[in-house]
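Course assignment 3, question 2. Fill in each field.
Student: A.L.
Task: Predict the tertiary structure for the chain below.
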Amino acid sequence: MKRFAGGVVLSTVQFKELLEAGVHFGHRVSRRHPRMDPYIFGKQNFISIINLRETIRGMLEAAHYLKTVASRGENVLFVGTKRQAKNVIRDEARRAEIAYVSERWLGGSMTNFSVVKSRIERLEELEAMEADGRMDRMGKKQVSSLNRERRKIKRNLDGIRKLNGPPDCVVIVDPRREYNCLAECRKLKIPVIAILDTDSDPTPIDIPIPANDDAMRSVHVILSFLADAIMEGVKQYESGLSAKERVEANREKEAKKEEVVDSTPVPEASPETVSAVAEIATAPATESVEAPAPVDSEPSPQSNPEKTES
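Answer field:
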């Protein structure tokens, strides 16, 4: 394990592991984007070679930012619909318990989230109909139509059904392919972390991670590293939340104790006691003041001379 700035605890990025996964292989030189030059080490056999130092720098920066976002209790979204990345996106997002899109990016998923939310509610309604047996009382044709609608909605929106609004950070695999998602993030000013190859433009990306986005092993190595960072942030958020709850519980106990002390009634002094205390306070210091006789509820026989004479 290695500790980075800001208290981030992450597994060490192995240079050899990135080489074995083929992270350093880019596209052909003819497809190179001119703005990717700072991230390219060189070329070999007309293939661009990505500088793995830049890849590791981007991974560490992205992991630190994702851990910070997760530690605040904010939402992260993984997006990747290409065949090489969709299974990795789904598995790592489920492991980290975050939202994901792996089948198809629906236009307006963030800019028109209210409509997307209504379709998610429709999916939950169809699942409830199937669970409580309401579909059993319908005709075969109607049931077939509802099942087809349920499968379609679930395929496209199952990964984001737990979102209550646009995410606070988006991780994209191949932003050149997911240009609609990138455009919506730019419009809503959502930070973007992207795994991009040598044919992509890194300008609109907040934290670029130059890497081979066409190899499943390459995508898996990077996404698993980012997912671990998110899980670390979630643990920190939960521990901080539990500590905050404990502090609030202690404050409530102290407040209840103060209320009990304030509400305890103070016994009132009798008029005889008050007059006796006043006489003692006003008497001069040289004179001795006799203590007041105790006041009894029934008179004693010696105090009544008539009964004594008789």
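Instructor remarks: The first helix runs from residue 15 to 20. Residues 1-11, 295-310 have pLDDT under 50 and may be disordered.
Grade: pending
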